[in-house]
Give the backbone structure.
Amino acid sequence: MKFSSTTLKPRMVTSVSALAGIGSLLLVWQALVSLAGLPHYILPGPLTVLGALYQYRDMLIQHGLVTILEIMLGFLFGIGMGMLTALALASFPPLRRTLLPVLLITQAIPIFALAPILMLWFGYGLLSKVVMATLIIYFPVASTCYDGLRQTQQGWLDLAHTMGASKYMILLHIRLPAALPSLASGLRMAATAAPIGAVIGEWVGSSAGLGYLMLQANGRMQTDLMFAALLVLIVFSIALYFAVDALIRRLMPWNPDRIRASVSAGE
Amino acid sequence: MSALGVRIDAARLKFRDQWLFKDIACELPAGSWTCLLGRSGCGKSSLLRLIAGLPLPETSHIAITTDDGQPLAGRVAWMAQQDFLLPWRRVIDNVVLGPSLRGKIRRSDIERGEALLESVGLADKRHQWPAALSGGQRQRIALARTLFESAPLIMMDEPFSALDAITRLELHELAARLLASRTVLLVTHDPFEALRLADQMLIFQGHPAHLERLGPPPGERPRDPADPRLNAWQAQLLHYLRHEPVAEAGDEVF
């Protein structure tokens, strides 16, 4: 493996800039708490939150694992259902007239409004949260994947046609890979939206999870624990985003931006 | 592979309730290069798609007969203005796209693909991604992919128009050498290109369009771009294209 200065420098600059941004935010936060003399039950300082993070670590891990499971299951089901819908829409044109309005309706219903009904139908356990997370990412995945499948370049399809390719082979070798860049945008959106769905579900009714823990902490005025739970949730969301981003990069080593970057870096 | 002669009859195509061309007939002699010229929007590319059996949104009809009496379907290779390399397949995988799309790729296909890359001068690029290559290199790979299909009829829709002048001249020579045994139908906007490469030129004229056939300039294709007569012929051809003379089919201009 080669780490030339040309490839390392931009990465280092990015990391240092990101750390500087986070550091500045923490400093402003602490300064606000110290200078304004805000009580800890209104806004605890970052050091107090770090303390709570350590003090309640077992509880945070226990509830965090529940939320992670909800997020991951919702993410996988949402992607699966979204992609299947997109494939059905692209493969059976008459289906578009009936399925597209339904797809739009699923997006038009505010997910907060739907949460109590889902609790009623699926109970206060894991399932209702998974359904929430699934629903919240279903539309972005379905629509971006469908857009990608629909916008396959006519020139590629012409070529495949003259080469005697079947519809299935065109889908497998041309339309699906061509839809990957669009789908990647949907997956990145889904990675940030799935935790929202799960936590909304936990707020409306649950007996475990970070959302549940935050509600309990709120009731007991344990603001530092609320912030600690929020911090864990942010870390989950960021980790999921970067994991998805890394997966996308792995699936698309041919991405022109990436190739141009490696060419200009002399790799 | 023996070259295939093709005859086109009664080709017609309607666009927005108007005939773009009507009852067009032409002959593509076996092993010859036919260049199709005409103004933008006259229907050249549509005629090419019609012959290749590609989908068209308009009402259309065509009758195709071949020398050997077999259907033309499945015996056409297509090369467009853009290279249409699949960015997610490496160079060699683009060259052997045909068998891969038909679901029966063999080791011998890869070897033949590599030999074709050698013949277009890009053997060292076989494991590269298309995005890392220049326009000229990409079009060479598209040419190798076209050759790989071993189709007796090659349909080319302005394949060299997006290239710089020098690369275009080089590709004329390469294509003329590698496609020597095939029947080629080439749509072009460039009279100079047609004069270098054609055995016959078919010009779209009038509304609805009909075809005027022009005989080839003397000499073996690809004709030398340094030949001063080529400029004179080009001037005549441009004059002919601009003024749309009413010529009898089969008139020899050169």
